[in-house]
Queue: 2 jobs
Job 1
Amino acid sequence: QSVLTQPPSVSAASGQKVTISCAGSNSNIGFNSVSWYQQFPGTAPKLLIYENSLRPSGIPDRFSGSKSGTSATLDITGLQNGDEADYYCETRDESLSSVVFGGGTKVTVL
Amino acid sequence: QLQLQESGPGLVKPSETLSLTCTVSGGSIKRTSHYWGWVRQTPGKGLEWLGSIYLSDYTYYNPSLRSRITMSVDTSKNQFFLNLSTVAAADAAVYYCAKHMWLRNYFDYWGPGIPVAISS
């Protein structure tokens, strides 16, 4: 059971928008910034969003992140077939003294 | 462009020590504020942070592994290391090394990962 709760899967048609939630608590998301990662099968996670809403160089603006209270959200707009992957949120938990990841969300393009 | 590469045995016997090396290229491991971390992934537990190290000065370990984990750095070889003692079947995973911006709380460069099996 992950400290950060993500839906196991989300789906939408090509061109549409998906939203992935990451629910935490005051000791993690409520206290620290959130990062998001994209992972394709058999490859390493790739940084998608850091410090809640910033995109590394090369990440399209179709990907956006936000944080409110003890939850964070990753939005993917203009969904493409190439966006089919697993997405993970991550932050630090002060009570656990540990970096924690969400359980991951599989995005499917219908 | 920074690159990381894990190396080590792909098979470890139960109760023995898992030792992995991460070689960093395209940048110095001594760079200020850059921590270096290990993350593993199993189908059952997803992504799990193991620990992060800054030069040889600061180490942070996952409390669940603190009694078994040791990390170190060799700046002359631009490498950092993971030792996990007394391994069991639950330690079988893909192990990733990554550059960890500890203070800003994200991993921005990852190695491709190395699968490690635990079996006698």
Note: Strands of chain A lie at 9-12, 18-23, 35-39, 46-49, 63-68, 71-76, 85-93, 98-101, 105-109.
Job 2
Amino acid sequence: AQKVTQAQTEISVVEKEDVTLDCVYETRDTTYYLFWYKQPPSGELVFLIRRNSFDEQNEISGRYSWNFQKSTSSFNFTITASQVVDSAVYFCALTNTNAGKSTFGDGTTLTVKP
Amino acid sequence: DVKVTQSSRYLVKRTGEKVFLECVQDMDHENMFWYRQDPGLGLRLIYFSYDVKMKEKGDIPEGYSVSREKKERFSLILESASTNQTSMYLCASSFNSGRVGQETQYFGPGTRLLVL
């Protein structure tokens, strides 16, 4: 069985603060994929990033960065200089390579106040 | 742009009614998924399909069935709606890349179903 834990249910920050969303996963598979999705108030989940289990390189995309550490089974997401438009629910997900089933975390609701 | 559409944004039904939730994608994706989203529970997979007329049970299939007669359309059926099926239902699709698991899922806007 696989599991994704996003321990932070809600986070509230003031604009321009940096914020890190935590994601910890459990799986017995050696090959798997990790994802982050953003769900704005409109409801539609939007893909942010994908990582495979063999690629532990951190990634930066503008104000977003991701830290994948296999040793601690974590795939954390940092937003630098947060903006009001970053307010959303963020989901971390793990997909196995057997049946391609995805397991999502419970989500972290981020509120960025002006 | 990939577009996944769902037939209704909001739906109100009565207990015992048969409910159809429709999902259509326009990118010729092989894979389609139905999730339900509940506060504190994240997204849970109900059913998925890798091809026309194929279906696989997800983590919570009880009380639901699905139909995939055409590649672009994946329907979720609540045979006899119950109040505990009040939820947000999300449809998603993805391209079959040949590398199982790496596909990015594209989501529809969701259908918020209320069963009275």
Note: Chain B has a mean pLDDT of 92.
